[in-house]
Design goal:
The chain is an alpha/beta fold and about 350 residues long. The protein folds into two domains: about 40 residues; about 280 residues, 3-Layer(aba) Sandwich (Aminopeptidase). About 35% of the residues lie in helices and about 20% in strands. The protein is built from seven helices and 15 strands. The strands form three sheets. An eight-stranded mixed β-sheet has the order 3-4-14-13-15-9-5-8, with helices on both faces. Strands 2, 6, 10, 11 and 12 form a five-stranded mixed β-sheet that branches. It has a two-stranded parallel sheet with strand order 1-7.
Length: about 350
């Protein structure tokens, strides 16, 4: 009888150990899966500007990620906290090419002479005769921002919205208003080339630009306004600078070139002449607002004119109000650049 009781106790203890082991294994793996889901990266840019081919980020930038117009980017952050936001200022000293108050991050094998670019005349003159001189477009019009300055983001913070009151289209409207107010006739196209499909956004934007150039041959400058995205694991980075006591989103000019695999961009240096002038003016007017100009082996539709440029304003972790402030400052710098 005692032997039977001992066997039963030993058996029961053994079964408890097995059950505890199985539960521990299940908890371990289910916990890993849960953590993996919470650390999903929407897309990682890591201080690199948008590339000309949209396919690399298309999977993460599906139309399902775009909020409904009724649910704008400026909404209460009442969702699940997904990660933290860190604040950073990218210094001009991070450029690998610096001269005459211009800082360039040259990611090509091209030799760049900043002084030559600054001293060379532009192939056109901006005139204030009522005819369109500037076109502002948005290849990725639905890119947006968060609603306030904070150190975390939630599941309710959209990275894209079709509401033009809160995406980069609103920034384009601010810049256009500044230029028009200064007598530089500017057209602002609000086509959402990245919605409902992110794929081929640049191809659709090219069609839009060509249409405007055909209808308004007086256009000399085409500005494509975006916002950047900087994320590593679950941490997002907002890029800021203090301008006149207010926090502004840092901006970056992104210029393509005929280098690497790009073979159809013979006028790239003409575009760069304008860009370095704007870069110099931003840096002198608003120190720390500009990240180093990024020169890439890309095209970004810039071969379509000799006055094309891409401007990134902030990241998805910047507040909309920081980005709007920067758009206003960019407008002032453009007035000085195009009016001189």
């Amino acid at each position: 009888m005692n032997n039977t009781s001992s066997v039963l106790r030993i058996t029961a203890a053994f079964l408890c150990i097995i059950a505890a082991f199985v539960y521990g294994i299940h908890f371990l793996f289910s916990g890993e899966k849960k953590n993996a889901r919470s650390n999903d990266i929407e897309y990682v840019n890591v201080f690199a500007p948008h590339i000309a081919s949209d396919n690399t980020t298309a999977a993460a930038q599906t139309s399902a990620a775009v909020s409904d117009p009724a649910t704008t980017a400026v909404s209460a952050a009442n969702g699940e906290v997904l990660g933290k936001i860190v604040n950073r200022t990218i210094p001009a000293s991070s450029a690998n090419l610096q001269k005459s108050g211009v800082h360039i991050k040259n990611s090509t094998n091209l030799s760049i002479d900043i002084d030559e670019l600054l001293s060379s005349k532009l192939g056109y003159t901006i005139v204030k005769n009522g005819e369109p001189q500037v076109l502002i477009i948005h290849t990725h019009a639905t890119e947006c921002f968060i609603d306030s300055d904070r150190d975390y983001y939630t599941s309710s913070d959209k990275t894209r919205t079709t509401d033009n009151n809160y995406n980069v289209t609103a920034l384009g409207e601010t810049v256009a208003s500044k230029l028009n107010g200064a007598g530089i006739k500017t057209l602002h196209d609000k086509t959402q080339h990245d919605y409902p499909s992110y794929n081929q956004s640049y191809s659709r934007a090219a069609g839009t630009i060509k249409g405007y150039l055909k209808k308004y041959p007086s256009i000399k400058v085409v500005i494509d306004i975006h916002r950047d995205s900087v994320q590593v694991d679950s941490t997002k980075t907002k890029l800021t600078a203090k301008i006149d006591g207010r926090q502004a989103a840092q901006v970056m000019l992104v210029m393509g070139s005929q280098s690497g695999n790009v073979k159809n961009f013979p006028n790239w240096k003409e575009n760069l002449k304008l860009a370095v002038r704007l870069q110099k003016n931003i840096e002198s007017m608003y120190p720390n607002l500009a990240r180093p100009l990024s020169l890439m082996s890309r095209s970004y539709n810039e071969p379509l004119t000799t006055g094309s440029m891409l401007i990134e304003i902030g990241t998805e972790a910047n507040s909309f109000f920081e980005a709007q402030y920067s758009a206003s400052l960019i407008g002032e710098a453009l007035i000085k650049t195009l009016g001189s």
